[in-house]
Amino acid sequence: MLFSAFCWHVEDHYLGSVNYLHDGAPKTWYSIPPASASAFERAVRTIVPTRVHDTPDLLHRLVTLVPPGVLRDAHGVPVFQTLQKPGTFIVTWPRAYHAGFSHGYNVGEAVNFGTAEWVPFGRAAVEAYVTSSFKRNAVFSHERVLLETGRRHARSFASPGGVSDEARAPWIASVARMIRDDLFTIAREQRTGRDAALTRGVRVSADDDCLGGRVTHDHEVVCAECKSMPYLAVARCETCWKLKDHIELSQAIARARAQGKSAAGAALALGNDRAKGAPYGGTTREGRRDLNRPVFCLKHALGGACGHPARERVVNTRVDVREIEDLARALGEFVGPS
Question: Which of 66, 72, 91, 116 is the Cys-Cys partner for 178 at CB 3.0 to 4.6 Å?
Answer without folding.
Answer: 116
